[in-house]
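Quick one: structure for this chain?
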Amino acid sequence: MGDETVWSPSLRTGRLYVGLTNCIADLEGRPSGLVANAEDMYALDPDEFRSLVDAVYANFSSTDHHVYRGQLRGWLLTSLVLLQRAHLDLPMVKAADEDLQQDLAAYAKSMPT
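Got it. Here's what it folds into:
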């Protein structure tokens, strides 16, 4: 965000996250909110990224499809950490999804800046 680094993943982890984000954005029919600055560096468009995360969380929380939720969970946790670090509001986590809130700190600790 601006000049602030919100995450500095390894190349492989970063590529996976960007690929997942682009795929999820395509499925949602929304922009990803990731703007390439270099081959391995991206900026976040705060409005677009927040909109995507909100939409994905709404879908995640509205289904009980175990596989669908499992596939989105890691991406969603990573994205919630990025929102926090970018000082953007997080979606309101529903009581049924409190485990997401509990796992945010663990994810954040494993995501170097």
